[in-house]
Specification:
The protein is of the alpha+beta class. Helices cover about 20% and strands about 15% of the residues. The chain has helices spanning about 15-25, 85-90; strands at about 30-35, 50, 55-60. It has a 3-stranded mixed beta sheet with strand order 1-2-3, covered by helices on one side.
């Protein structure tokens, strides 16, 4: 279930302040953040945010299509290495 529309989107206060400061100064610096739960708001568009995935920081360039989504959706935490080949499955231990 999503967050109540009455409350509005959750954005970590410090992250929002840092992005507003960059917008005021008209700079395009990469900001590191651990806040995967923050919602992307229109002020973030055009900035690159390094989102922590638990192991390393993943650079996420924010576009208009991302507004309303969470930052964590774009910094994947698991690495899918593919399915096993049919030959490996048949010759495996039973």
């Amino acid at each position: 279930m999503g967050r109540s529309t009455r409350k509005g989107p959750y954005v970590e206060e410090r992250l929002e302040q840092r992005v507003e400061e960059l917008n005021r100064q008209r700079q395009k610096k990469v900001l590191k953040t651990w806040s995967r739960r923050s919602t992307i708001v229109p002020e973030f568009v055009g900035h690159t945010l390094d989102v922590h995935n638990g192991r390393k920081f993943i650079p996420v360039y924010v576009t208009e299509n991302m507004v309303g989504h969470k930052l964590g959706e774009f910094a994947l935490t698991r690495l899918f290495r593919g399915h096993t080949a049919r030959g490996e499955k048949a010759t495996g231990a039973r």
